[in-house]
User: Fold this.
Amino acid sequence: MIEPQFCVVEELISMEYMDRSVLILYPYELRNEPILKDNIPKMTKVIREYIKESEMYRKCVDTIPNLIWDSQKLSMQNEADEHQRKADELAKIMNEGISPYAWYVKGRFNGEIGGLHYNVDNIVYLDRN
Assistant:
């Protein structure tokens, strides 16, 4: 169970290229902060792409040990590096102007928050760097 100090911003459900649900949370004490309110739309525009790039990076990195040839390993590492570069660029957009806070992504969540049950593929939450 997630502690009640978090507010649920919204639950984003499936888009054309990703059939997944995303739950967005932030600390309750920041609920009236204008900077956060301005940041949330920017973050929600890129969060799915950020998740996709992060997952593609992880998939590439996990594949490397199973490859035989150095040329394959180098090619896969280059692809992983490109996915990481894209994820880093998206993270800059998501986190612009909200330091010392940043958005973090966790995998599957199936539980209660504030008395409501959620079963989502990812949780995106705001926390201090």
About this structure: The chain has a mean pLDDT of 88. The chain has one domain: 6-128. Residues 6-128 form one domain. The chain has two helices and six strands.
